[in-house]
User: Which sequence fits this backbone?
């Protein structure tokens, strides 16, 4: 016996709700996809009715509730907007198959899924082009209407996308009333509600808008005739859209003229920079300023900005000079600025700075009373993807930058210096020392300053072993306490 | 002198702005006009509303507030020594023009830039005034991109971040040396410091919004669309490898959304210190592809550099294929077994295809027929992959492989008018 065939008539071409409730009922009654005849209200009656096609409403409602993954719903919603006649059948077939094949949705090689994806993509693209290429024209509202500006557009979509796309225009143009007219369906917004009416002919849409002259001026001026790429343009703005784009009438003349304009540009004699002498003069004055004697920490910081003694200046944001009172009795010297310091232009403001502040507080040293700086003034890093990973400066870089550290020592004249980490100890002593050899004692430097050496605070951050980290912290506490005693002893 | 008409000034100030390659209008988050019955929305992806015959998308009204400038950057049409016609908009004109275009759905918003007049702060003030008018008087919620002036005061930069969706500061040239030579009045440290400042403001704003344990008022936004920059390619001697290394440094250092590469283009009033010949536009295209590999395909810049010739990317083939041809020993890659990182290295297989491969192979092993539905460039990929019913035989060693993948020489990027 021939299976019974059911007929479904949907309210309009993109009636997802109608499709869904019919699909549920058909599915609950195990009706095969081949036994459903889908059509929309207003479609011409098919030439022949399949034998015994009966309204699907005759089927019992049954237990119609069936859950499907959200991904299927959004796929089906798009699919239903496609212009292909078999879209409802394909969507229903997928819905049926999902019962037995729960993995179907993630199978990009399946023929039905592939076709559904292509169709959904075509619908998305069409909707995207509608959002892009609708051109509103301002019209004078009817007598008695409110004085809100009213705009009307004419558009010809490929698929049944007006219902799905209208809310975008509502959200964007909430403060004006508008209509988008298409041959199939029209959308209207009056400032309060979104409504839909049947399609209209092109003649109902307005013809021009004074703003279009300005827009064409902009279109022509933003085009660079030296970079003509017509294919790239038509790939994104196919010719079929041109007739409804006010700017498109300029395209052919702009292309025709481009070669000539390009040539004219190339034939223009170049002009020497008019102010080159002034610029050179300023520049020389600038470099003289850089050579000016350094009398204060401010002079020093200004001169340091343009340091190019070593290649580290290339990648970093800025040289980070020391910070603190110019007469500080205590100077703390770290290794080099890190990611945060490089951005802020101040030493020890990142996570290592937090550790340092912590330990200083516990030792009873006021950070504001200390001059805090680094052995190397530019941040050295290695790129790993989108991160800058700290790398220790090499001996050459330390040696180059030593010049700046020496100047800071000379200007601040601290009584006690604390080297935080081995790089600082090497920069301050000029020797290849090790932490273990230097820690725990007070060293006298050539100029009479006392030197205390301890770990760098970031060693604590890098340490994964909690016990070892505690130990490092203990070291720092002890060493900074030594430094404090030295300060007190010196009065 | 009689004031030029609005239309004439638009022609001048749009022309002057067209050398800035940025057109993006995405990433500003979700915002619309429904609540306050204003005008404008941003919903993730930006929209290109038109395309010019140069193939570039027109998404924003890209204009200069004024093309007068006290600087003399050699590559710039607006430099003080150029003989172009000068013009200026008032902030109100900028706002009105933006609204007139936006209401008609011509644009996603405004990209405002300016020559420097009087001082940096004075210029920034005028630009900010235009955006203030848009946001308050016109209740405009569309996209705004401000090209900020690195020398302006931090207060103005902060206000710019509150008003705009995206900020950009152009590094202009890939190397400090190039900047010194061609833009002697600009200072790389100032530029980078400003970018750093913007980065930390963006991070702070994000942290503050995430960390809303107390039900306080929403903390103010700061450039939710992030920051970007632009580099001019071909005006100085920097190689592609140098350019890309600078980009990688900028991405990592300042959390940039995008680095734009703008092949230095002949301008109607060229400067004598510039090279006479513009670089091929193809070079710009290859740089974008390499940049893309870095950001989305897990390529480190040194790997890309290793696939260049003397620091220059191959103009005939894309950088991913160039890398594969020089690293044949890692191929063929088995699409049924390889991890994501390796799949991404197969020429002709993009991020979408990789996603489809990973998803589908959970259920069954993949054959060529499956792959043909996932990528449109299967032919290019074939020598580099293994599937259930496919194994390239000696293709990887064939001397002809490279030649067969190179396009015929006469291929041209331009299509003749
Ligand atoms: S690291 Fe030191 S020596 Fe090297 S460029 Fe920077 S300031 Fe100069």
Assistant:
């Amino acid at each position: 016996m021939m299976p019974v065939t059911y007929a479904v008539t949907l309210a309009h071409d993109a009636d997802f709700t109608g499709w869904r409730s019919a699909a549920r009922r058909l599915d609950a009654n195990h009706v095969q996809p081949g036994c459903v005849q889908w059509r929309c209200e207003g479609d011409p009656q098919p030439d022949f009715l399949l034998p015994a096609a009966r309204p699907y409403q005759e089927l019992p409602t049954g237990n119609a509730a069936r859950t499907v993954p959200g991904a299927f719903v959004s796929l089906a919603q798009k699919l239903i907007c496609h212009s292909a006649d078999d879209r409802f059948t394909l969507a229903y077939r997928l819905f049926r198959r999902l019962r037995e094949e729960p993995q179907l949705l993630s199978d990009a090689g399946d023929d039905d899924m592939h076709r559904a994806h292509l169709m959904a993509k075509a619908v998305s693209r069409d909707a995207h082009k509608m959002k892009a290429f609708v051109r509103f024209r301002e019209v004078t509202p009817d007598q008695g209407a409110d004085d809100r500006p009213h705009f009307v557009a004419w558009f010809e979509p490929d698929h049944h996308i007006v219902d799905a796309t209208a809310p975008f225009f509502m959200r964007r143009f909430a403060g004006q009333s508008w209509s988008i007219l298409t041959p199939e369906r029209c959308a209207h917004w009056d400032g309060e509600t979104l409504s839909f009416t049947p399609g209209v002919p092109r003649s109902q849409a307005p013809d021009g808008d004074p703003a279009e002259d300005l827009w064409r001026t902009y279109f022509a001026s933003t085009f660079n005739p030296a970079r003509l790429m017509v294919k790239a343009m038509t790939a994104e703005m196919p010719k079929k859209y041109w007739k409804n784009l006010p700017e498109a009438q300029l395209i052919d003349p702009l292309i025709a003229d481009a070669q000539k304009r390009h040539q004219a540009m190339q034939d223009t004699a170049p002009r020497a920079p008019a102010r080159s002498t002034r610029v050179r003069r300023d520049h020389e004055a600038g470099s003289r300023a850089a050579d000016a004697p350094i009398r204060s920490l401010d002079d020093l910081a200004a001169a340091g900005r343009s340091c190019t003694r070593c290649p580290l200046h290339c990648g970093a944001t800025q040289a980070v000079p020391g910070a603190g009172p110019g007469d500080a009795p205590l100077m703390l010297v770290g290794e080099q600025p890190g990611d945060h310091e490089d951005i802020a232009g101040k030493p020890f403001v990142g996570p290592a700075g937090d550790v340092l502040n912590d330990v200083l507080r516990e030792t009873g040293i006021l950070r504001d009373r200390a001059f805090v700086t680094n052995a190397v003034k530019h941040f050295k890093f290695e790129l790993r993807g989108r991160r800058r990973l700290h790398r220790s400066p090499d001996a050459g870089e330390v040696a180059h930058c030593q010049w700046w550290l020496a100047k800071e020592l000379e200007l601040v004249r601290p009584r006690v210096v604390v080297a935080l980490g081995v790089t600082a100890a090497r920069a301050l002593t000029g020797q290849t020392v090790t932490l273990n050899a230097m820690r725990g004692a007070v060293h006298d430097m050539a100029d009479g300053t006392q030197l205390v050496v301890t770990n760098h605070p970031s060693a604590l951050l890098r340490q994964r072993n909690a016990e070892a980290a505690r130990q490092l912290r203990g070291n720092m506490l002890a060493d900074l306490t030594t430094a404090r005693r030295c300060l007190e002893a010196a009065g | 002198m009689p004031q030029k008409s609005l239309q004439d000034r638009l022609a001048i100030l749009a022309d002057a702005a067209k050398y800035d390659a940025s057109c993006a209008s995405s990433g500003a988050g979700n915002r619309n006009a429904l609540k306050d019955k204003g005008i404008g929305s941003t919903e993730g992806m930006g929209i290109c509303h038109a395309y010019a015959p140069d193939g570039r998308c027109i998404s924003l009204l890209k204009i200069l507030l004024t093309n007068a400038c006290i600087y003399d950057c050699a590559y710039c049409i607006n430099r003080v020594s150029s003989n172009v016609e000068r013009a200026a908009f008032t902030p109100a004109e900028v706002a009105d023009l933006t609204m007139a275009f936006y209401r008609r759905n011509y644009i996603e918003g405004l990209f405002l830039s300016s020559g420097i007049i009087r001082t940096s702060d004075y210029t920034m003030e005028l630009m900010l005034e235009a955006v203030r008018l848009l946001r308050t008087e016109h209740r405009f919620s569309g996209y705004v991109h401000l090209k900020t002036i690195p020398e302006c005061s931090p207060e103005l930069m902060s206000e710019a971040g509150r008003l705009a969706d995206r900020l950009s500061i152009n590094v202009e040239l890939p190397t400090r040396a190039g900047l010194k030579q061609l833009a002697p009045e600009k200072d790389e440290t100032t530029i980078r410091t400003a970018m750093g400042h913007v980065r930390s403001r963006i991070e702070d704003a994000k942290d503050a919004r995430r960390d809303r344990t107390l039900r306080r008022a929403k903390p103010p936004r700061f450039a939710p669309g992030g920051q970007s920059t632009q580099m001019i390619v071909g005006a100085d001697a920097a190689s592609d490898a140098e350019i890309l290394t600078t980009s990688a440094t900028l991405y990592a250092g300042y959390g940039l959304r995008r680095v734009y590469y703008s092949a230095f283009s002949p301008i109607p009033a060229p400067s004598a210190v510039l090279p006479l010949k513009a670089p091929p536009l193809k070079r710009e295209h290859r740089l974008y592809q390499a940049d893309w590999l870095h950001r989305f395909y897990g390529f480190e810049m040194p790997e890309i550099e290793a696939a260049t010739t003397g620091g220059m990317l191959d103009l005939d083939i894309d950088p991913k294929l160039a890398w594969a041809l020089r690293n044949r020993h890692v191929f063929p890659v088995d699409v049924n077994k390889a991890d994501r990182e390796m799949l991404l290295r197969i020429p002709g297989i993009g991020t979408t295809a990789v996603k489809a491969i990973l998803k589908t192979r959970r259920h069954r092993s993949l054959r060529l027929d499956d792959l043909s539905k996932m990528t449109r460039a299967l032919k290019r990929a074939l020598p580099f992959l293994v599937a259930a019913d496919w194994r390239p035989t000696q293709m990887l060693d064939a001397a002809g492989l490279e030649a067969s993948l190179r396009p015929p020489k006469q291929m041209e990027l331009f299509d003749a008018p």
Observations:
- Confidence is low (pLDDT under 50) at residues 410-417 of chain B.
